[in-house]
């Protein structure tokens, strides 16, 4: 009997404490939101104040440059195919930089990631060192290495390739490590039981399991590296970025060339994006349908 | 007979299958490396690597490496009036006040410079003497009329001495002496980054940490900090500002893109946007923003806004709006309809339905993507800063262009790597706190 009378007060208590909790949560959320908005506004104002041109002034002129470029390109539309053909070798160079750096980076990343698998590493004590090496490779922006190498080796595709490869090794190494963690140990143990060396265990036991994922990540990285190699060209590392910088610093009169390069770059990025998307889809889902067939 | 035929047929098939499989595997195993090798050979020649080897500047490499961890102090005598000046790296910012010199230089009528290990240079009133242990004494008298008259010890001139009519230069492990008609200059090399904490004109230069702490305890902490912070050689205040700008670009760009992309992403989803044409248009807009690439956005925006952090932030914002739009719309297409119906059944208005039915479902994806991009955008902001001129990227390119401040380049590189690593760690920590923390409380 006493229980029956106690129950309603308990419900009221629960209800009150629940409401108080939601209230508190809402207040915290609101404070956090206000704080975030204030930070964003303050940050925006700081950035605006330290910029050479102001935001409200610039926003009206944002389309001036594209219009200028496009109108000149439109006037000389008949020359556009010629320009595109002219800059095509530069685009090939940019693509080559991206492809070669992805290849080298993937190889180095594979080695680093295999050397840092817990339980399978060649030198277990050195795992932290290999991980730090990957972290540092990943943290270095390509432009830093590229600029230093341009000083040493002169302008050209090789500094860009090395710079991107180093960053790629770190970035892919980390992703590969995550894939390796999920690899089954059974094939490796089987190989170890028949006396396989470490390299054989890795090559025959781990790589076949993780191969499709590796390739899928490497393709994604290739997309990113095309962009990176275009950017590095802009600071003097050859390829289509370098041509773009030349055409742009010339200014009026060569805007049609700039437009041609814009188009080349845009189309390349979109096409590679689509192709690698399809390929990656086939790699991750295609094997399943192949097994069903 | 027929019986055995039937049973052997699958075997034959299986065997043929396996043979084919092995054949294919063998082919792939050989063809793939071969393909790779031939591509790399092509690249090797397309990039002109053999020529590169010849072009590479080992002298530059040497300067770069040695300069990044050491510095040199110049002792210069003007031969026309006999005035001797001492300056670190030969820069005016690092010059000792007139009449003052480090302990290894004794100024006077004849200036004696101790280069250690028995190496000693003496700037006499007329003649300059360099005592080199194991070789002898080199004397040289510069004059306006006769150039530099050098007297070397008898025997063959070693390759580290370069003597001509108007110039004598001697490079040893201890330092370097260069004499021309107008001036004589000695370099002595030291390990470390010179004047990193205090410049020569500061009263705190050369003080040990203990002495500094004593001064700080006596109420000079502000002055000490001021001397360090406004160090003319290393410009710590400017560097801190530049790092701040780079981070600002990354934060504004990433979160700004998130704020813009979230509402627009609804328009690109199958389940929230019934209008097919609008959906298609939004998706193509995202593809366009992503495809144009941050390089082109940076170039276009720099024309409108000029160099600075705002341009960089906007370039990141625009590119990432495309990326986030794609990711968010994919996440929105995968939301569970049941929660929305549940919220709707309580009589929620459309806006409340989105707020309580949809947003909680995609918050983990949203946050983890934002934080992941925050880290990678810190790196992008450095690169964009180098192109547009803002943040640490600008300082880095400026230092590289001088082709001599490699110690500063090394310093900035260390700072950038540390900044990116700290951001990586921070975003990972926050991601774990926010996302796994949330699922835990949901379970509990």
Automatic annotation (TrEMBL), chain A:
Membrane topology summary: Multi-pass membrane protein
Primary localisation category: membrane
KW Cell membrane (keyword) present: yes
A cellular component term, taken from the record's GO annotations: plasma membrane
Transmembrane segments: 27-47, 97-121, 142-166, 258-279
Pfam families: BPD_transp_1 (PF00528)
Domain ABC transmembrane type-1: start-end pairs: 91-276
The protein's name in its UniProt record: Phosphonate transport system permease protein
UniProt organism field: Epibacterium ulvae
Lineage: Bacteria, Pseudomonadati, Pseudomonadota, Alphaproteobacteria, Rhodobacterales
Automatic annotation (TrEMBL), chain B:
Topology in membrane: Multi-pass membrane protein
Localization annotation: Cell membrane
A Gene Ontology term for the protein's cellular component: plasma membrane
CDD domains the UniProt entry points to: TM_PBP2 (cd06261)
GO molecular function terms listed in the Swiss-Prot or TrEMBL record: ABC-type phosphonate transporter activity
Ranges of residues in domain ABC transmembrane type-1: 243-427
TM ranges: 27-47, 247-268, 381-403, 409-426
Swiss-Prot/TrEMBL keywords: Membrane, Transmembrane, Transmembrane helix, Transport
Family per record: Belongs to the binding-protein-dependent transport system permease family.
PANTHER family: PHOSPHONATES TRANSPORT SYSTEM PERMEASE PROTEIN
Record-given protein name: Phosphonate transport system permease protein
Taxonomic placement: Bacteria, Pseudomonadati, Pseudomonadota, Alphaproteobacteria, Rhodobacterales
């Amino acid at each position: 009997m006493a229980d029956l009378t106690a129950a309603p007060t308990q419900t009221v208590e629960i209800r009150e404490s629940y409401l108080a909790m939601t209230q508190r949560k809402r207040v915290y959320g609101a404070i956090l939101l206000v704080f975030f908005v204030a930070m964003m506004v303050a940050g925006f104002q700081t950035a605006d104040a330290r910029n050479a041109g102001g935001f409200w002034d610039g926003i009206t002129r944002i389309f001036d440059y594209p219009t200028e470029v496009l109108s000149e390109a439109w006037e000389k539309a008949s020359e556009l195919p010629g320009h595109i053909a002219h800059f095509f070798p530069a685009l090939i160079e940019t693509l080559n930089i991206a492809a070669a750096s992805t290849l080298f980076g993937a190889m180095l990343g594979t080695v680093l990631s295999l050397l840092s698998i817990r339980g399978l590493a060649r030198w277990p004590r050195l795992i932290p060192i290999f991980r730090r090496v990957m972290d540092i490779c990943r943290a270095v922006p390509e432009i830093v290495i590229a600029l230093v190498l341009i000083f040493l080796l002169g302008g050209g595709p090789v500094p860009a390739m090395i710079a991107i490869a180093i960053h790629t090794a770190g970035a892919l190494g980390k992703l590969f490590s995550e894939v390796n963690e999920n690899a089954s140990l059974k094939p490796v143990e089987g190989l170890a039981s028949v006396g396989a060396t470490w390299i054989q265990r890795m090559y025959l036991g781990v790589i076949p399991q993780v191969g499709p994922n590796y390739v899928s990540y490497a393709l994604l990285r290739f997309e990113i590296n095309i962009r990176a190699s275009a950017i590095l060209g802009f600071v003097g590392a050859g390829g289509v970025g370098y041509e773009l910088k030349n055409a742009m610093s010339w200014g009026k009169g060569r805007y049609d060339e700039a437009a041609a390069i814009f188009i080349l770059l845009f189309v390349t990025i979109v096409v590679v994006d689509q192709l690698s998307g399809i390929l990656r889809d086939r790699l991750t889902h295609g094997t399943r349908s192949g097994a069903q067939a | 007979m027929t019986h055995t035929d039937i049973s052997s047929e699958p075997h034959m098939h299986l065997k043929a299958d396996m043979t084919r499989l092995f054949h294919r595997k063998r082919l792939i195993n050989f063809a793939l490396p071969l393909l790779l090798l031939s591509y790399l050979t092509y690249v090797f020649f397309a990039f002109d690597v053999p020529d590169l080897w010849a072009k590479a500047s080992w002298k530059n490499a040497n300067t770069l490496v040695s300069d990044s961890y050491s510095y040199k102090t110049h002792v210069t005598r003007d031969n026309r009036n006999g005035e001797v000046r001492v300056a670190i790296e030969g820069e005016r910012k690092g010059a000792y006040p007139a009449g003052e010199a480090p302990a290894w230089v004794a100024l006077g009528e004849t200036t004696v410079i101790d280069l250690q290990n028995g190496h000693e240079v003496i700037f006499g009133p007329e003649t300059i003497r360099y005592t080199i242990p194991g070789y002898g004494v080199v004397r040289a008298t510069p004059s306006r009329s006769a150039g530099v008259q050098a007297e070397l010890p008898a025997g063959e001139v070693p390759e580290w001495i370069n003597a001509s009519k108007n110039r004598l230069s001697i490079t040893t492990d201890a330092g370097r002496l260069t004499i021309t008609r107008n001036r004589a200059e000695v370099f002595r090399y030291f390990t470390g980054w010179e004047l990193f904490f205090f410049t020569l004109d500061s009263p705190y230069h050369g003080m040990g940490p203990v002495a500094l702490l004593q001064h700080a305890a006596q109420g000079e902490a502000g002055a000490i900090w001021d001397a360090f912070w406004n160090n003319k050689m290393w410009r710590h205040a400017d560097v801190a500002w530049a790092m701040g700008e780079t981070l600002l670009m990354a934060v504004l760009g990433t979160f700004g893109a998130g704020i813009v992309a979230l509402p627009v992403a609804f328009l690109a989803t199958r389940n929230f946007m019934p209008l097919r044409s609008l959906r298609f248009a939004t998706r193509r807009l995202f593809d366009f923003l992503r495809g144009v690439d941050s390089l082109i956005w940076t170039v276009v925006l720099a024309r409108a806004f000029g160099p600075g952090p705002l341009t960089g932030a906007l370039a990141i914002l625009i590119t990432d709006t495309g990326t986030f739009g794609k990711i968010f719309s994919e996440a929105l297409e995968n939301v569970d309809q049941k929660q929305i119906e549940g919220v709707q059944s309580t009589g929620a208005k459309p806006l409340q339905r989105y707020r309580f039915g949809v947003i909680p479902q995609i918050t983990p994806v949203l946050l983890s993507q934002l934080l992941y991009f925050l880290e990678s955008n810190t790196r992008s902001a450095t690169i964009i800063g180098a192109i547009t001129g803002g943040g640490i990227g600008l300082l880095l390119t400026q230092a590289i262009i001088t082709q001599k401040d490699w110690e500063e380049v090394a310093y900035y590189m260390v700072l950038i790597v540390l900044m990116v690593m700290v951001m990586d760690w921070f975003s990972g920590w926050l991601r774990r706190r926010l996302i796994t923390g949330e699922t835990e409380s949901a379970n509990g």
